[in-house]
Amino acid sequence: MVMQLAGxxxxxxxxxxxxxxxxxxxxxxxxxxIPMWWSFVNSLRPGDETFSYLNPLTWQTxxxxxxxxxxxxxxxxxxxxxxxxxxxxxSLVTVVVGLAIxxxxxxxxxxFRFRGRGLMFSVIILSxxxxxxxxxxxxxxxxxxxxxxxxxxxxILPGLGNGMxxxxxxxxxxxxxxxxxxxARLDGLGxxxxxxRIYLPLSVPALIGAGLMLFLFQWQxxxxxxxxGTDRDHIVGPVALSNLQGQFAVDYGVLFxxxxxxxxxxxxxxxxxxxxxxxxxxxxxxx
Length: 287
Fold this sequence. Notes:
Layout: H1 2-43, H2 70-74, H3 80-111, H4 117-129, H5 133-145, H6 152-156, H7 163-174, H8 178-186, H9 191-202, H10 204-219, H11 223-228, H12 237-243, H13 252-282
């Protein structure tokens, strides 16, 4: 009887906590959704109507009864299509090659015990704590000396070794039972076989999460492509978006249309793989 009364007392408190959590999540979700929705609505309006309904706020601020796709049609006369293709190529190559490099490095730091392993891992952690933009200018000078300016190799290379991806994969690799590895070694499987047949198949969520990090790093990069891709053949999405702003006038309708396209592509990819990403991040720190 006492246990039933205690359970009854805890139930309202638990219900209140769940309701508060759901309310807080809804508020945070709306805080992210409202600016995106406003941008989408303004991408369907002429540019001269963008700020017409901001003061005071009315229903017309977030809705329009006369949508038009002229802003999206106008993008065909810009470099945005070429830029999106370049961004996709750079990002996909970075994901494929970067995952191979980061997974191999994480495997070495997780499976092998050698002197200086802790120091090396500390340097990797430090690498993603320093903002890349802080080293972009001196790094760009080095790349120019190596004749890598206006080349896809120069745009891709800095994103291949991602410290955060290595940290995520190493943490996931450490959760793999050592008994499984020892059994494979006793059966005559080499270290490369252990990596390819045991670590990689068991780490698909972590690989997808690390791949998303590599993709987003390149997709949203602005300063580095601005320094290294100065011609039209190597322009990327964020730089092309910035170039849509004229010197004396800005067509905000076209600008919002281009922004929505650049947002929807990574958003669709993230939504498609979000459960793998959440699973990979949730396992970070285990063991």
